[in-house]
Each structure stands twice: as structure tokens, then as C-alpha cells.
Amino acid sequence: MHCLSKLDHYIIPNDVVVKLGKIYRYVGNNDFYINSLGTDLNKVIDKTIETDAYYLKKILDLDISEARTKLLIYKNSSPRNKQEKTLVNLKETLAYIQNNYNDLSLQSNDLYNLMNMVYSHYSKIGYATIKDDGYSLFVSQTSKSKRVIVNKMNDIIVDAINHDNIDKIVLYLNYFIDLYNLKPFEANNESISLLVLYQLVLNADLNTFKYVSFFELIYNDYDHFKLELSNASVNWKENFSQTIGFVKYFFDSVLIAYKNTDLIIRNYLFDKNNKKYENLETTILSYNSMFTKEDIRKVHPYVSESTINRTLYNLKDQGLIMPLGKGRSAKWIKNKDIQLS
Q: Which candidate, 339, 324, 274, 323, places its Cα nearest to that of 300?
């Protein structure tokens, strides 16, 4: 809990304050996003959970083929082995967090329950122990369960929120860095750290991650994520870690997510109130290089596969675009013989 213990002296630079202000302006749109989706909200969140499970599987490097991964996540296929059972459990845990994040705390029992939801089919889950290695709390003791430290961290979080003396997002990011370095369990600590971070960003009212995949965002910039997390962990045991770089990186990621959310909601409303294929055509013809159906889905995630296919082949028949390859992963490109205004 070395980061949390220094919160009274935490200074947020001006450029980070500016980013934070931009984030909260987006947070002010949370109700607008929810109201815009109306009865489709739950379907949208379900789709986000599926995408989150897909990319979290990649981050954790589970040994499951691409075909089986998609069957397990998108078709609810039954798992055949422990790795596949882990993936199914991850998806269910992500759904549980999405539906209950406001009611979850950071007490040791809550973290244990999350671990149990994912890894109960493996060996018994247990908290790791720690010897005296700089934790002044345990100077007179040779060994102690890290459960005690987790509960102490939770006490600091609750006290900080009650006194409202530090921004909640900054508070939670420092908690995450502490949890990541503490490694509270005997195994699978990266998983629990990421799941708790997922819970925390939702609890901090960053509702963009109801519509934009949190773990896709991390996976697509994973080297940067790990670099900033590693930098924030330097001298952590010595109580001299510097977390502001990770905070800056994370704020930039949140702003990207909200910009994508704005685009998604705007296109959703346009598609809902107009002819969907016209908006799809505008998106397709805006690409200046090769694109795939997956690129289109990122802009129009709630338009059906059949509508996307129909629009693509209609533009192809007009000679405006042409496919490069066949199948679901085929790339498309504008027809170079056609000059588009």
C-alpha cells in the first residue's frame, strides 16, 4: 500500500488536471448515452462484455485456439478443458462486475470471491503471505497473510472517499498499482489486478466502458500500458514509486474511449432515425486505405452483419470498392479507377 500511503502528499500536475477536466466533461454525458440507447442498452453492454472477454483472453495468453475462443464467447459453447473453463468464467465475471460494480467493495473477501469465480476449477485459492521486507506493520512478525494488507488498503480507500480529499480516479489508479505490486494471492495475480481495475473504472463513473471495450483498449496499446505500469512500480518496495506517468497514460486512454463512445452513440442515433445503409456508405467511402468489416463494426457496432454485407456488395456492384481476398477476414479498398469527390 505504498502508493496509497503517500496520497496526502500527492501533487497532480497542471497538464493532468486539464486532462481530468476533459474526462469529467465527458462523464457529464453519461445519462445522455444511457438515454440514447434506451431499450438497447443491455444488448450493447452484453456485446461489450463479449469483446472484453475476447481481449482479456489475449492479454492473459490463454492457450485456446481462435476458433474455440469465438465459440466459447459468442456462441456460449461448453468448455472442454480448464483453460476454456477459465475463459468462460472470465466472461461471467466481467458480466458480474458490469452488473454489480456499485455494490462491490475492495475488502479481502470481495477480491477472494472474484478469484474464486474465475479459478475455482483449479487448486484451492489462497492469499499469499509476506515476511518483514519493509512493511512497518509487520516488523515484529515473521510472516503474515497479505489479506491483512488488502483490508488495510480498503480502509484507506473508504476513508479517502468519505473525506473527498483526492480525485476518485487518481485514487483508484494508485490502488491498482499497489495491488499489482502486492501480488496478494498465491497465483494468477495479474488476472485479479486487471479485473479489479475494470471494477474500479466503472465505479469511478467512467461509463464509456459500457460501450467501448476496456480490455481491447489496453490490448491495442499493451506495450505502452506495461511500460507505464513498470515505471510506476520502480522503487515501489522502497516507498518511492512515481505513479503520475501511469495516470497520464490512463487519462489519455479514457479520453480516447470517450471520443469513440461519442462516435458510436452518434452513429447509433443516426442509424436508428435514418436509413442505416446510407450512414454505412459514408463510413466506407471515408476510408483512404484498406479496411475490413471489423473496421466498420467498430464505428457501427450495433448494425447487423447482413446490413454491412449488403452495403459492401452494393458499393462493389457500383464499382466504388473492390474486395482483396475472400471470406470473413477479407480486406476491401476503394476502386482506384474511380475518382471520388
A: 274
Residue 73 and residue 54 in contact, taking contact as beta carbons nearer than 8 Å: yes
CA angle 86, 61, 151 (to 5 degrees): 60
The 10s digit of each residue's pLDDT in 32-42 is 999 999 888 99
pTM of the model: 0.81
C-alpha cell at 269: 442515433
Q: CA–CA separation, 98 vs 233, rounded Å?
A: 28
Q: How far apart are the C-alpha atoms of 4 and 176, rounded to whole Å? A: 10
Three cell numbers at 247?
Answer: 495516470
Cell of 5: 500511503
